[in-house]
Amino acid sequence: MNASYPPASAAPRIAVIGGGITGLAAAHRLHELLPRAEVALFEAGPRVGGVLDTAHLDGFLVERSADNFLTRLPQAVALCRRVGLADELLSTDETRRRAFVVKNGQLVPIPDGFFLMSPRKLGPLLGSNVLSVPGKLRLLAETFVPRGPASKELNPEPRTLNPPDESVASFARRRLGNETFERLVQPLVAGIYTADPEKLSMAATMPEFLAQERDHGSLLRARRRAGRFRDQSDDSSGARYSLFAAPKDGMASLVQALVARISPSAIHLNAPIESVRQMSDGRWQLDFGFRISDFGLAEGSFNPQSRVPSGCRNPQSAFDALILAVPAYAAAELLRRHDPTLATELATIEYAGCAVVSLAFQRNQIGHALDGFGFVVPQVERRRIIAASFASQKFPGRAPEGAALIRVFIGGALQPELLDLPDHELRQLALDELRDLLQITGEPLLTDIARWPRSMPQYHVGHLDRIARIEELAARHPTLALAGNAYRGVGIPQCIASAESAAERLATPITP
Q1: 68 touches 92 (CB < 8 A)
Q2: Half-sphere exposure of 70 toward its Cβ, with a 13 Å CA cutoff?
Q3: Apex CA 263: angle with CA 257 and CA 266, to 5°?
Q4: Contact 309/266 with Cβ under 8 angstroms?
Q5: Which has the closest alpha carbon to 346: 354, 334, 356, 358?
Q6: Using alpha carbons only, what angle is made at residue 158 by residues 153 and 159, rounded to the nearest 5 degrees?
Q7: Which conformational region is residue 461 in: left (phi greater than 0), alpha (psi within -120 to 50 degrees), or beta?
Q8: What pTM, to 2 d.p., does this model score?
Q9: Phi, psi (5° rounding) for residue 305?
Q10: How far is C-alpha 508 from the geometric centre of its chain's CA atoms?
Q11: Which pairing describes strands 54-57 and 89-91: parallel, antiparallel, or unpaired?
């Protein structure tokens, strides 16, 4: 259907559906690009921010999901700078930049410099007891492992086409051996993606390692040629913690800063959308999940405190452009009647959920030194948690003096049934695991439980091809844009990049 743009004298009306970090970043970017535009953001729930949620409880700063973002990708830092938060960003405590992995019920340091599936320094790896002697020898033999089929078949110009794909488990076992996969790669990947590595796509999540195999024939050889075995600039283990940052007052401060820049009057809470469709004049009509008469209000009412969106003159408002900043399955439902083919592709993206149980203790209740940022748990240990983060050790101001705050992650793609446990069982599960692993005595000072069902998209093998099909289908609608963590990255910087790209793409066709 051909788009019909507003006349030069009219300000374009743009709707953003979804009030998570992606939707907020998209609305903010639209305000920057089109200050005259009427931007309305619709959130089905009672609050914006999506999974970003910070609670201040009895002197503790509790992050209920992500507690930092990667600074190597510029989008999050740049956005913080534009909304006035640059001076409030904290880096991780450099004296504790390491992590642990559980082995035989004990916390063992992840070798310094080991990142996902590649050692940056061989000495710490060879001296570590995470791997057995046969496991270390198998890892060192990686240099002699031939290239995989995917690397051999890569197009000479790989940027023009998506490369052949392989699961993370297949790649790691093939190159590094089963023990390194089970003891290091699997738990580290689970801590990031809450995913099943047997299904997780290498091309979509860790393309740099595919490129190293393609270009050098070996991950170890690639590191040696880059001189990185001698690089002492980052001794982090498990993740490059020097590249993470967080706002001083928590991730919610970024949400609040965006709301203030967008204007609270443009944000409509408790405003569920049932479907969207493009009308004959090219504008987009939103069908709300309620009727104005249900609230005893006349059409055209402007009541920001009600569930009726204050900027809408009727429950089926029309907009010149539309950004869907919601999970792929929600976007599929919204588009089901308008574009069934696009909706079907979106619905194929699977999701996993996770619970975050935050527990606070007096420091003298904990026998472990907490001399790191947390630990990950291999599946072969047969425990009921994915990982734990020592939140009060990573950034200052997360716990009162003499206390510690620990966040425990439960569920994910490998143990989805645990997410259905009632709160008291989740609390006890987390507490039992911490008591065993960290030698904790007594009861916690504080407990906070956050559940995030269907919150993490699963980038299964073939994900990039799926996204290419989705983008090709979405391009048929020049005033529609999709944004979020379902497409090309799950982190906060990638969500912001997706949001701003969507806003910039729409700003051109709707500008008179």
Answers
A1: yes
A2: 14
A3: 130
A4: no
A5: 334
A6: 160
A7: beta
A8: 0.89
A9: -85, -15
A10: 28
A11: unpaired
pLDDT values of the chain reduced to their tens digit, one per residue, 512 residues: 445 555 554 789 999 999 999 999 999 999 999 999 999 999 999 999 999 999 999 999 999 999 999 999 999 999 999 999 999 999 988 878 899 999 999 999 999 888 888 888 888 889 999 999 999 999 999 999 999 876 655 444 444 455 679 999 999 999 999 999 999 999 999 999 999 999 999 999 999 999 999 999 999 999 888 765 444 444 444 455 568 999 999 999 999 999 999 988 899 999 999 999 999 999 999 998 754 334 333 333 323 333 444 444 444 479 999 999 999 999 999 999 999 999 999 999 999 999 999 999 999 999 999 999 999 999 999 999 999 999 999 999 999 999 999 999 999 999 999 999 999 999 999 999 999 999 999 999 999 999 999 999 999 999 999 999 999 999 999 999 999 999 999 999 999 999 999 999 999 866 65
Confirm if 91 and 242 have CB atoms less than 8 A apart. yes
Domains, the chain, with CATH or none:
13-50+252-349+460-510 (3.50.50.60), 68-96+244-249+351-457 (3.90.660.20), 114-234 (1.10.3110.10)
Alpha carbons 252 and 130: distance in angstroms, whole number: 37
Give the list of residues 6+ apart from residue 300 with CB closer than 8 angstroms, or none.
Answer: 313, 314
Cβ atoms within 10 Å of 270's Cβ, excluding its own: 16
What does the chain come to in residues? 512
Three-class DSSP category at 148: coil
Alpha-carbon distance 509 to 512, whole Å?
Answer: 8
**Paired tokens of 432:** 């039992």
Distances (CA, A) of 372 to 170, 392, 395: 30, 10, 12
CB 488 within 8 A of CB 494: yes
- Please name the amino acid found at residue 36: R
| Contact of 385 with 102, CB cutoff 8 Å | no
Task: Give the 3-state secondary structure of 186-245.
Answer: HHHHHHHHCCCCCCEEHHHHCHHHHHHHHHHCCHHHHHHHHCHHHCCCCCCCECCHHHEE
Question: Please, how many CA atoms are within 13 Å of residue 246, restricted to the half-sphere of its CB?
Answer: 24
Residue 293's Cβ-side half-sphere holds a number of Cα atoms within 13 Å equal to: 0
- H or E element, residue 424: helix 423-438
Query: What is the identity of the amino acid at 190?
Result: A
